[in-house]
Design a protein that fits this description.
The complex is a heterodimer of chains A (249) and B (354). Chain A has a single domain, classed as Rossmann fold. Chain A contains nine helices and nine strands. Chain A has helices at 23-37, 71-81, 93-99, 101-109, 150-153, 159-164, 180-198, 213-216, 220-234; strands at residues 43-47, 62-65, 86-92, 115-120, 123-124, 130-131, 171-176, 204-209, 238-242. Chain B has 354 residues and is an alpha/beta fold. The longest helix of chain B is centred in the middle third of the chain and has 21 residues, at 216-236. Chain B is globular, with a radius of gyration of 21 Å. Classes of the chains: A alpha/beta (249), B alpha/beta (354). Chains A and B meet through strand 1, strand 2, helix 2 and helix 4 of A and helix 3, helix 4 and strand 9 of B.
């Protein structure tokens, strides 16, 4: 009896992610949501530039690779071309909250009917661990070797809080994938973000607080603990906007 | 039934795009091309199309990339500084082999420059549209009618060769009003796009629209394949028009508004007995090298009339393999040479005779 199987919305391509990286979990949650909603055949995903740049090889649906930060604009084009398609972007923090801030904010304010999966691990992973827009104050990275100095570099961007001030977006929630309980909540949020699109409700973004053991210089286990001790206090989990549902926060 | 209507060049582009089957337009306001966006904003909602004013030129070209990936005809328009912002997207469109139409109604530069007509984006359009090895088909209309015709042609070539076509116009061409005929019976060819992302329907392998090739041998292969396509275009798609070239001893080379001014100067020079003609490139890439090289054996001199500091000059010299001198007659910064100025240059090239 099979009790655990690979979602259909994932291909057989082996993931290239580092040991202990949570991208694999998040890919799986997205694929499970696509499977459960039965939308694989009409889903088009947009991959970013960053660690998940090759996500186009991992999802079984049609995929487009976007320029760095431009995924929400590319997704806008795809969605406007045929609104019956389900369009999602999968982006990291550098992609979504730094170089692509304008595209993110404006897709949100237009209430573009797309689903955005935003993976926040507070670092640029693909390029080898530089300071991200979401790196924490004091966080040591390759480009903040003495720790992020907020006097010089400013403060981390809290994307859900920032976007929640806009009239436009339908749904904003921050989740984490550092333990089973949080993974279950993350799955529910991701599924809801797709359901919103199916129901024509508009821009839905799920921020997933994630890890980067390699560039944080930690074991996978310590990285998961670091999420609890440092990331979540700065990036509180919860629903930041849910226009059609109950405002919870 | 087709009738002639009086239209601005910018409006002619917009209406012709709709005729060509384009139902998706993304843009950002910039003078002197905003009429295109205004026209699309009015028309698109009435024909179930998309008009969207993007947050930036960068976003607009990436929305174009998104629609192009789905296989539908799509366009954006801008002017010089805005095209510079789009160059990132132009490179990605090339890398992913996506068809699109991009309009540049040029203004003077560099920097913020001015808002008056210019042709100083010639290099950018024909040689340096963005990073990496790629080309765009560059079409240079000289009449409002051509603004319409070359827009339709541009969409066709873009689909045929899976690449960007650029209409390289200027502020004069955009603002000028002339009678124009958008042929109701114009044949619009449609192309199969099995590569497009339209949803797999769970019936086929997934399509991937992408410009990333981390294995160098694969990336090299895509570049070489693309240039084989470009070679075919150079052999078969160059367009130009000859004017009074039969017995010409001096050949003016000019495109767009510069060609119209030159034509008046040539007619006057002929009245004064100077044997001068013109080759007007209609495609700037592919550049009409063959007629220019043929002319090099007949004429004594070439004059490049341009609204730039002399950008096309280099392509003329290459095309004629420097067989004859190429002189420059130019104004820049939004200034346009008068027919008298061009005539004076023709007389000078004629050795001061007549």
């Amino acid at each position: 009896m099979i009790v655990f199987d690979k979602p259909k919305a994932l291909t057989d391509a082996p993931l290239h992610y580092c040991p202990g990286c949570t991208h694999g979990i998040i890919h799986r949650l997205v694929a499970e949501a696509i499977d459960e909603l039965g939308i694989e055949g009409k889903t088009i995903g947009v991959a970013p530039v960053g660690c998940s740049v090759m996500a186009y090889d991992y999802f079984s649906c049609d995929m487009v690779e976007a320029a760095h930060g431009r995924a929400p604009a590319v997704a806008t084009g795809i969605k406007r071309s045929d609104p019956s398609n389900i369009v999602f972007t999968y982006q990291g923090d550098g992609d979504l909250a730094s170089i692509g801030t304008a595209e993110t904010v404006h897709a949100a304010t237009r209430n573009e009917n797309i689903t955005v999966i935003f993976v926040n691990n507070a670092i640029y992973g693909m390029t080898g661990g530089q300071m991200a827009p979401t790196s924490l104050p004091g966080q040591v990275t390759q480009t903040s070797p003495y720790g992020r100095d907020t006097k010089l570099c400013g403060f981390p961007v809290r994307v859900c809080e920032m976007l929640s001030e806009l009239e436009g977006p339908e749904y904003l929630e921050r989740v984490a994938v550092n333990n089973v309980k949080n993974i279950k909540k993350a799955k529910a949020a991701i599924k809801k973000a797709f359901e919103n699109q199916i129901n024509g409700k508009g821009f839905s973004l799920v921020e997933v607080v994630s890890t980067c053991p390699t560039n944080w210089g930690m074991t996978p286990k310590d990285a998961l603990k670091w999420v609890d001790d440092n990331m979540i206090p700065y990036y509180p989990l919860g629903v930041y906007k849910d226009r059609s549902g109950k405002e919870e926060k | 039934m087709t009738e002639k209507v009086l239209m601005k060049g910018n409006e002619a582009i917009a209406e012709a795009a709709i005729k060509a089957g384009c139902r998706h337009y993304f843009g950002y306001p910039i003078t002197p091309q905003t009429e295109i966006a205004a026209y699309m904003a009015k028309r698109m909602p009435k024909i179930e199309g998309t008009f969207l004013q993007a947050e930036s030129e960068i976003a607009a070209i990436n929305m174009v990339y998104g629609v192009a990936a789905t296989g539908k005809r799509v366009m954006t328009s801008s002017s010089s500084p805005g095209i510079a912002l789009k160059s990132e997207g132009l490179s990605y469109l090339a890398g992913a082999d996506l068809p699109a139409l991009v309009v540049n109604v040029q203004r003077g530069g560099p920097g913020l420059g001015g808002i008056q007509p210019s042709q100083s984006d010639y290099f950018q359009a024909t040689k340096a549209g963005g990073h990496g090895d790629f080309r765009m088909i560059v079409l240079a209309p000289a009449f409002v009618q051509e603004m319409a015709d070359l827009t339709i042609k541009g969409f066709d070539l873009a689909d045929k060769y899976r690449m960007t076509s650029m209409i390289l116009a200027d502020g004069t061409m955009g603002q000028m009003m002339e009678p124009v005929e958008i042929r109701e019976d114009a044949e619009i060819t449609t192309y199969d796009k099995p590569w497009a992302v339209t949803g797999t329907g769970c019936k086929r392998e997934h399509n991937i629209v992408n410009s990333l090739f981390l294995k160098p041998d694969q990336l090299e292969k895509t570049n070489i394949e693309r240039y084989e396509r470009y070679k075919l275009i150079e052999e078969s798609e160059a367009m130009y028009e000859e004017f009074m070239m039969e017995d010409a001893e001096i050949c003016v080379v000019a495109f767009g508004i510069a060609a119209r001014v030159s034509q008046n100067a040539i007619v006057e020079a002929r009245k004064q007995g100077i044997k001068v003609g013109m080759i007007r490139p209609i495609t700037l890439w592919p550049f009409p090298k063959k007629p220019l090289l043929a002319a090099a054996d007949k004429v004594n001199k070439f004059i490049s009339v341009e609204l730039s500091m002399g950008q096309m000059v280099e392509d003329i010299e290459l095309a004629i393999r420097c067989k004859k001198p190429v002189e420059l007659c130019n104004r820049v910064g939004g200034m346009i040479p008068s027919p008298e100025e061009v005539l004076a240059k023709i007389k000078e090239a004629n050795g001061g005779k007549n």
